[in-house]
Amino acid sequence: MIDADGVTYPTYARLVVRKLGEGTRARVGRIGIEWRYDRTDPWAITMQISGTTYAFRFARELLDRGRIEPVGADGFVFVQPLLSQWVEVTVRCGCERNCSSSLFSFDHSEIDNVLDVTEQLVPLGAEAAAVDEAAVDTELARIANGVA
User: Fold this and answer.
1) Residues 87, 93, 97, 102, CA torsion sign
2) Residue 27 region, left (φ>0) first, then alpha (ψ -120 to 50), else beta?
């Protein structure tokens, strides 16, 4: 669904959850994913697991580049192509103990569709032109004055 302020795009992914450590087994299943893109933050995209509060927000460019090459190895989100049909998004927790990683496998065409829909609002590479500088200045002033 596209409106003037953003995009919501539902899809499905194959999910593998692995907890690091001895004797742990991976859980595998098919889950619903809702991608959200808001033109007020044109650089970011949100991947929400349907029916939960789990949401992962990361750079839209990471998702775009990850369709053709592995990116994000230094962060908590890693995206890479797998063969020609799949794009994998791996999300790692930031804790040291009981750390887990979740691997989401998407059909390549679904990621293409998600990005195509977001580009209808803000083309990739044109994010800076889409930012309302007055709104950013107002928000920064609000934060600097301790109003949260």
Assistant:
1) negative
2) beta
Alpha helices in 11-126 (DSSP H): 60-65, 108-121
Task: Report whether 80 contacts 67 (CB < 8 A).
Answer: no
For the chain, first and last CA: distance in Å? Answer: 31
Instruction: Please give the Cα distance from 143 to 148 (Å, whole number).
Output: 6
Tens of pLDDT, residues 22-74 = 555 666 788 899 999 988 888 899 999 998 888 899 999 999 999 999 999 77
| Distance (Å, whole) CA 66 – CA 57 | 15
Q: How far apart (Å, rounded) are the C-alpha atoms in residues 76 and 148?
A: 26
Six-digit token string for 83: 């063969």
pLDDT, tens only, 79-111: 999 887 889 898 876 555 556 678 889 999 999
Q: What is the pTM of this model?
A: 0.77
Q: Report d(CA 20, CA 10) in Å as an integer.
A: 30
- Give the alpha-carbon dihedral of 2, 50, 32, 63, to 10 degrees: 60
